[in-house]
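User: structure tokens for this one?
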Amino acid sequence: MKLESICISNYRQFNKAEISFDDGITVLAGANNSGKTSLITLINTVFNNEKVIYCDSDIPAKNMQKWISSIYPLFQNFFLAGHSIDEVDEKLVELILPKDKSKPQNTIETTQIRVHVSYNPLDDDIMLFADYIMDLDENKHDFFFEYYYEVNRYRFVQAVSKEYEKLKKRFEEIEDKRKKLKNPPDEIDLNNIDLKERYLKQRIVALYVNSIVPTCYFCDETYKNRCQMDDVKQFRNLFNFRFIKASRSLDDDSTDHSHSISKQLIKLAKMNDDWNNLIECLPDEILKPIQEKEINKKVQETSFNSIKDTIAAIEETNGGQSGEIMLDMLVTEEDISELLQRITTATYCVDGYFLGEASQGLGYSNMIFIHLQLNEYERKIDERKVNVFFVEEPESHMHPQMQQVFIKYLTEHYNSGKQGLITTHSNEMVRVAGISHLRVIRRTGDFTSELYDPSKLIQDLRKSSEAEDNLLANFYDWFFEIGYSELIFADKAIFYEGDTERLYIRKLLTLEKYKKLKQQYIAYIQVGGAYAKNYRKMIELLGIKSLIITDIDYDKNAESIDAVSESDITNATIKEFYRISHPASTPKVKDLYAWKESKQNIICSGKIYTCFQSDKDGYSRTLEEAMLSKFYNIDVTMSFTKKEWIDKRDTDKLAYVIPTKGIKDDDPIRLRDILQSTAGSKTSFMCSVILSNQTEKTEPDYIQEGLKWLME
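Assistant:
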């Protein structure tokens, strides 16, 4: 039996989130506060924990607001019209939840969970699922279930009736205050009325939510034809679901006595017949010498002698009716069995020394605890059920290297047929697991999140008949493994060409004017102009606002402004993005200047800004050229004498290289000549800019414009 997918609608910050499950390990990644814990807590509630109460905070605020806006006037009219408590059902609730279910029901869009399960007809035993077959097509081997939080009409009537007097009093108080409003109304009084109405609306919503009960259906694949199951427990009985939480209590010092690992080891040992036989014999073996040596008799005698003076004093006050008081031992097999469980703890044998549970670090203990939990889960697998385990943030307290090894073990050990979901905010976990196992949660607003499936993008690219798509799939796999994975957690991304760009951009973001960017998580991705275009599909999928900083790369021999304007370019990314608005066109530099000026370089629904040099940057063609153009306020056609360049360099402490061979002090040297000579020492030049505090003075216009756009 395989869990294919879980689709969740109308839950907290999620309008809709569908998680598809691999045959082995699926990795659900997302930054802190993106909603990972919310999703898996709900899933755990659905499959495991019926004690968790569904509450108003589980419903999207917009859904509650939409409902109460239409319902509040009905409550207001009912209570102000003087209707009695006996009329709550027929005069109020009937308008909201008609008994005739064919009539429109005015309900809140509450949380809905759809579960898709598949099976192999040759290998799987569907005995437990046989009653839930909805499709008789021999070629289809699927089951579909819906777990829905529905309002119970009877409970809602009872809830409103129970608070009838309170609600009536509140509505009358608000109405009375409205009648006493001055003309024009006082702002304080209006605010007071608004506040009372807000609390009253919240109370009505709470009455509704408290009347909600979970209901299960088995359905066809459209989820339109469905039959209600007798009990939620029937649904839960189809799944063997194990949930290992992130907040694990582990021993890490001598004052901690939780002994989580010991307890888990004992649970595993109990699954072994030899252990159980031993534990069964031990109480009797321990009890035997206690009985033979009459220890209980000695306890009685000693205790009586110790307290006989007290007993004598008692007898003087009660007429000698106290009897003989003493301590006695009632030792049973159950007592000894409990003692054995309590005193059995995990120890580590190191070079003949036995060390306690707290002797290991939290990361190591955490890893052992997860392994023990998973081992217990494996021993309890029921082939008739859908078996799935969830581990929440296993990277807790683990060093990056341990994270890598651990996730690699999980993906290799739990392969086909052993399903598990790992949630993580670890870049190392995501990178090693790979894009084919990845599902991503990203915040899309203050109170909204979306779930994305990059693995489907890879699958579609591999299925494509286009060779270019297959190359792109390989590109994603390879670059994801070496560092692309940080995109998953980023608020925004900056793509750049080389090490000098990285140094310069990171230094720029320390400036006060970019403080807003510095406060966000920026992914820095190094990629050449020929390959930046490859990231477009992934940026579109994840919706990450991205700045691509690249060089225009026109003909380096173009020396005049006219020659520059008419020059072709070699940058593959710029050319491909230009063709989005100008199909089948090969742009000249002048076309690209106009394209950028009209902001057509912002593509993918405003998610990608292609940033390159323009006429505002002195017609430069590279970053370093643009920086010196800005610093000295010159364009590529201008020049200084050799002596002037030397004086400027010495004064400004910038490590660019001035050509000297065969050049006299008064000979003119163009900016391009300086950059050609500096080509082999770009890093030294960039370090000199940073160390001489010239970062802001050399900032080219094209980068400034791009960073301002990214900051918006």
